[in-house]
From TrEMBL:
Name this polypeptide is given: DUF1963 domain-containing protein
Pfam families: DUF1963
Domain of life of the source: Bacteria
Region (Disordered): 1-20
InterPro entries: DUF1963, YwqG-like_sf
Gene3D superfamilies: YwqG-like
Length: 835
C-alpha cells in the first residue's frame, strides 16, 4: 500500500526521496503490467532509457487507458487483473502515488512521466494534438484537487516557473520553454478545458510570471481561439501596465468580446496612456473593428483630438472613405451632439430608495476605474428598482471610470436576464422612463444606438435591435431632440420597421412634417409611399396611404399577411434584414416571405383579446357524447378538456384557416408521454346550441402533473385565453422538393428562429413550431390512420398548438377540407416531448 510523503515524514523516514519516487512511479504505471510494457515504460520514466517505448504506448496496449484516465471508475475485473500482478495495488493508492511523484520527482522524471501520459491518452485528430506538457499540467491540477498535505505541497510546488523547468528538461514543443509553458496553460478546445490549468496563472506567482514574459504571452495569445484570448485578457487585467501593448493590439480584434475585454484591461490605465495606445488603430484597423476603440477614445480627454489628427494625416484624398466617414462621425458626435443642450431641462438624478441597492451602488466601483458590473449578480433585476439609471452612472463616475455613461448604457445590450434575454431586447415604456434622462444628457450615445448595432457579444445570446431600443427610449422624451431631428426624419421616411417609432418620436414636428411633404415628390417610389403613409397618419388633407404591406414590394406577401398590423409585420421586416445580412439573395428572401401565414398567438405580456378559456368546465350539448375512446358499452377512456375557443371572438382573416364564423371549438387531449399520438380531438358546438355542464371521469397520469385534476386546476387559474395577431414562416425541416425551390431554406429558418419575443405558448393557425427536429405534425398526420383513408399530407393544417408542458409541445391538426365541412371529428392530436 502506498504511504504518502506526509506519513513518511511523520514516521521519521529518511529525507532521500529517490526510493519513494521509484516506488510511486511504479505504482502509477502498474496497470501496464497486464500488457508486458510495464518495465520498459517504468525504466524510461525513471532513467530515460528506451524512449521508443512511447511508440508502443501510442498503440494503446491494455492498461494504457487506466493510466491516461485515473479518475475513471474501472470495473472490478480490471482492477483485479492489476492487483494479481502488482499486489496491494488499488486506484486510490495510484492516485496517492501520483501526488508523491508530483511533489518530489525531479524535472526530467516529471517530463518523461508527462510524455507517457500523453502517449497513453486517447486522442483524435479532430481535437488537435495537445503537447505532453498540457496533458501533464492538466493531470497535476486534477490531482492536487484532492484534500491532504501532499496535495497542498503539490499545489505550492507547481507554478508556471516550475512548469517551465519541466518543459526545459523535456524539450517541450515551442520556440522556448516559456513559450511552451504558456501555450500549454492557455490552450483549450472541446476536450481540453483550461479552467484548471488557469489556476497556475491566477495565483500571485502566475500573475508575476505573465508580467515577466509579457512579450511571449502576446505572441502566444494572438494565435489562440476567441474565448481563449478573452481569458488571457482577464488574467492580464491584474497587471495592466505590463500587458498594455497586448491589450491595445486586441482592442481592434476581430471578435467583439475580445475587444470588450481588451478595453476593460486598458481602462485600468490613465487616460493619456490609453489614447497613446489606441491611436495606432485609427489609420490601420478595418472599419468593422474600429467602433469599440473609437467609442473609448471619444470618452477620454484628448481622444477626439487624436481622431482629428488622424483625419488630418489622411491628406486631401482619403484612401478609405468608410474609415474617414466613421472617424468624422465620431468627431461630430463629440463636438456637436455631446455639446447639444437637452430638449428640456433634465430632472435631477433620482436616488434609489432601496437601502440595499444604494449600498451596492457605493460598492460597485470599489475596484477602481477598471471595475465593471460582471460581479454584480442580478444587476438586471436591480435596475428595475432604480427610478433613474443615472444613479448607476454616478456610481461608475465616483469610481473614476471615464466612460461611466457608456458603461451604464451598455448594460442594455450586454447583460441578460435570468431567462437569457438581453435587457434592451424588448424594452418596455416603464423601462424607458428610467433610461431616457441618461440619453437626454448624452445624445451622442443615442445617435450611436440609432446605427442599429446588435450588441451581440456572445454567440449563445440573442441580439438586440438597438435602433428599436433607442427609439423606445426617445419616445419618452418630452419632445424630439432637435439635434437628432434630421436623422429621425430620415428613418421616418424609410421603408423598414423603424419608420413607425421614429414618427412617434417626431410627433407633429414642423420641420419633419415639411420634409415628409417634400418627399411626396421624391424620385424614389418607396420614399413617396412612406411619405404618403406618414402624412395620412397625421391627418394631412388629401394624403392617401399606400396599400398595407407596401414596404415589402408588390406581390411579395399574400393578401392575408399584408393586412396584418404593422406591429406584426415588424417581425418580417427584421427577418428580411437579418437574412440579407446572412448573405441570402434578396429574391430568395422574398420567395420565402411569400410563404408567410397569419396566426393568432400568445403575447409575451399576456395581452390581447380573449378568444377562449383554458380548462373546464366542459360544456356540451345534451346529445353529444363525452369525447372518449370507446371499447364497449361500459368501457371507455374519456378525454380531458384543454381549451374552449370562442370562434366569434376570432376576427376574420386573423388566421389562414377556414374557421366557422361563430360557435365554439373544444380541444381535448390526454397529455400522456408514452406515445406521440395522444388520445384526444376536438368538438364543434354551433352558435346557439343549448349546452350543459358534463361531468367526466378521467383515468390517466398526465405528463409532469400529479393528476388530471391538477392539470385542470392550472389551466383554470390561467382562465381566459388571450391571443394577438402574429405571423409565421416554416420552421420544421423541409424536404428535397422544397429545398429545390428554396436552396437557402436552412439559413432562412435559422434566422426566423431568432425572431421571438418569448411569447407564443398558444397558437391558432399558421405553421407548427419545430421541436428538436421532429418534423411538421400537419403532413405527418396523414399517416396516423393505418387504412390510408385520410387526406394526403398536403391537405393537413395546424389548428392549434400549445407549449403547455415542460420540454413538450402539443399540436391539434385537421385536413383543410374537413375544417371547411365542419368535420372536427377528424382532428389528430400529437405531442413531442424531450423530458
Amino acid at each position: 500500500m502506498h504511504i504518502s510523503e506526509a506519513e513518511m515524514a511523520d514516521s521519521g523516514a529518511g529525507a532521500d526521496s529517490s526510493p519513494r519516487v521509484t516506488a510511486a512511479v511504479r505504482d502509477c504505471l502498474a496497470p501496464l503490467r497486464v500488457s508486458e510494457v510495464f518495465e520498459p515504460v517504468a525504466e524510461h520514466v525513471l532513467r530515460g532509457t528506451g524512449p521508443e517505448v512511447l511508440a508502443a504506448l501510442r498503440e494503446r496496449p491494455t492498461g494504457a487507458d487506466m493510466i491516461a484516465k485515473p479518475d475513471v471508475t474501472w470495473s472490478a475485473a480490471r482492477v483485479r487483473a492489476v492487483t494479481d500482478l502488482h499486489p496491494g495495488w488499488s486506484p486510490q493508492d495510484a492516485e496517492a502515488a501520483r501526488l508523491t511523484v508530483y511533489r518530489t520527482a525531479q524535472a526530467d522524471v516529471l517530463a518523461r512521466f508527462g510524455q507517457v501520459l500523453h502517449a497513453a491518452g486517447d486522442r483524435t485528430p479532430a481535437s488537435g494534438e495537445p503537447s505532453w506538457l498540457l496533458v501533464l499540467a492538466d493531470d497535476v491540477t486534477r490531482a492536487y484537487g484532492a484534500a491532504g498535505a501532499d496535495a497542498e505541497d503539490v499545489q505550492r510546488r507547481w507554478d508556471p516557473r516550475f512548469l517551465t523547468e519541466v518543459a526545459r528538461a523535456g524539450d517541450a514543443p515551442g520556440r522556448t520553454p516559456v513559450h511552451a509553458t504558456l501555450s500549454a496553460l492557455l490552450y483549450a478546445d472541446s476536450r481540453h478545458w483550461a479552467h484548471r490549468r488557469h489556476q497556475l496563472l491566477e495565483s500571485d506567482a502566475g500573475i508575476a510570471f505573465l508580467a515577466r514574459y509579457a512579450d511571449e504571452l502576446a505572441d502566444v495569445a494572438t494565435g489562440l481561439a476567441d474565448h481563449n484570448r478573452r481569458s488571457v485578457l482577464r488574467l492580464c487585467a491584474r497587471r495592466p501596465e505590463a500587458h498594455a501593448a497586448l491589450a491595445a493590439e486586441l482592442a481592434a480584434d476581430a471578435d467583439a468580446g475580445v475587444r470588450t475585454e481588451a478595453l476593460d484591461t486598458l481602462s485600468r490605465l490613465d487616460g493619456p496612456r490609453q489614447v497613446a495606445l489606441l491611436r495606432q488603430h485609427l489609420r490601420t484597423a478595418s472599419p468593422d473593428r474600429l467602433s469599440d476603440p473609437l467609442a473609448r477614445l471619444a470618452d477620454l480627454d484628448g481622444g477626439v483630438v487624436a481622431i482629428e489628427e488622424a483625419l488630418a494625416e489622411g491628406g486631401d484624398g482619403p484612401e478609405d472613405p468608410e474609415r474617414e466617414q466613421l472617424l468624422r462621425r465620431v468627431v461630430y458626435r463629440v463636438r456637436v451632439l455631446r455639446a447639444a443642450e437637452a430638449v428640456v431641462p433634465v430632472p435631477p438624478v433620482a436616488a434609489p430608495q432601496d437601502a440595499d441597492l444604494a449600498e451596492e451602488l457605493r460598492a460597485l466601483g470599489a475596484d477602481g476605474p477598471g471595475g465593471d458590473d460582471r460581479s454584480w449578480h442580478g444587476v438586471e433585476g436591480r435596475l428595475s428598482l432604480m427610478p433613474d439609471v443615472r444613479a448607476l452612472r454616478d456610481a461608475y463616475r465616483a469610481a473614476g471610470m471615464p466612460d461611466a455613461d457608456r458603461r451604464a448604457a451598455a448594460l442594455l445590450v450586454t447583460r441578460t436576464t435570468h431567462a437569457r434575454r438581453k435587457i434592451g431586447a424588448f424594452l418596455t415604456p416603464e423601462d424607458a422612463e428610467r433610461w431616457w434622462p441618461l440619453f437626454a444628457e448624452r445624445l451622442d450615445l443615442a445617435d450611436e444606438y440609432l446605427d442599429g448595432g446588435d450588441g451581440k457579444r456572445h454567440p449563445d445570446q440573442s441580439a438586440v435591435d438597438t435602433t428599436t431600443m433607442i427609439l423606445t427610449i426617445l419616445e419618452r422624451f418630452p419632445a424630439a431632440p432637435e439635434a437628432l431631428v434630421p436623422r429621425l426624419t430620415s428613418l421616418a421616411l424609410g421603408a423598414n420597421r423603424h419608420r413607425l417609432p421614429a414618427r412617434r418620436v417626431l410627433g407633429d414636428h414642423p420641420g419633419a412634417r415639411a420634409a415628409a411633404t417634400a418627399a411626396l415628390s421624391d424620385a424614389d417610389a418607396g420614399t413617396r409611399s412612406s411619405a404618403a403613409e406618414w402624412l395620412a397618419g397625421l391627418g394631412e388633407p388629401g394624403a392617401v396611404a399606400p396599400e398595407p404591406g407596401w414596404e415589402f414590394g408588390a406581390g411579395v406577401l399574400s393578401p392575408a399577411v399584408r393586412a396584418l398590423p404593422a406591429s406584426t409585420l415588424w417581425w418580417l421586416d427584421r427577418f428580411r434584414e437579418q437574412a440579407l445580412d446572412k448573405g441570402v439573395p434578396a429574391d430568395d428572401v422574398d420567395r420565402w416571405l411569400g410563404l408567410a401565414r397569419p396566426k393568432l398567438r400568445t403575447a409575451r405580456d399576456g395581452s390581447g383579446p380573449a378568444v377562449g378559456r383554458l380548462g373546464g368546465p366542459l360544456m356540451l350539448p345534451p346529445d353529444v357524447p363525452t369525447p372518449a375512446t370507446v371499447w364497449g358499452p361500459d368501457n371507455s377512456y374519456e378525454y380531458q378538456l384543454i381549451a374552449t375557443l370562442d370562434l366569434a371572438a376570432i376576427p376574420p382573416g386573423a388566421t389562414d384557416l377556414p374557421l366557422p364564423p361563430d360557435g365554439h371549438v373544444l380541444l381535448f387531449a390526454n397529455v400522456e408521454l408514452d406515445e406521440e399520438l395522444l388520445p384526444g380531438g376536438a368538438v364543434y358546438v354551433p352558435a346557439g346550441t343549448p349546452v350543459e355542464e358534463r361531468e367526466v371521469s378521467l383515468d390517466y397520469e398526465p405528463y409532469e402533473y400529479d393528476s388530471p385534476e391538477a392539470l385542470d386546476d392550472e389551466l383554470r387559474r390561467t382562465g381566459d385565453l388571450r391571443l394577438t395577431p402574429g405571423v409565421g414562416l416554416p420552421s420544421c425541416p423541409v424536404g428535397d422538393e422544397a429545398l429545390a425551390l428554396h436552396p437557402h431554406a436552412e439559413t432562412l429558418q435559422e434566422v426566423w428562429s431568432e425572431q421571438s419575443d418569448e411569447g407564443g405558448e398558444w397558437q391558432i393557425g399558421g405553421y407548427a413550431a419545430d421541436f428538436d427536429g421532429y418534423g411538421d405534425p400537419a403532413p405527418a398526420s396523414a399517416y396516423s390512420e393505418e387504412d390510408g383513408q385520410w387526406p394526403g399530407p398536403g391537405d393537413w393544417v395546424l389548428l392549434a398548438q400549445w407549449v403547455g408542458v415542460p420540454m413538450g409541445i402539443l399540436y391539434w391538426t385537421i385536413p383543410r377540407q374537413d375544417l371547411e365541412a365542419r368535420r372536427f371529428d377528424r382532428v389528430v392530436v400529437q405531442m413531442y416531448a424531450n423530458p
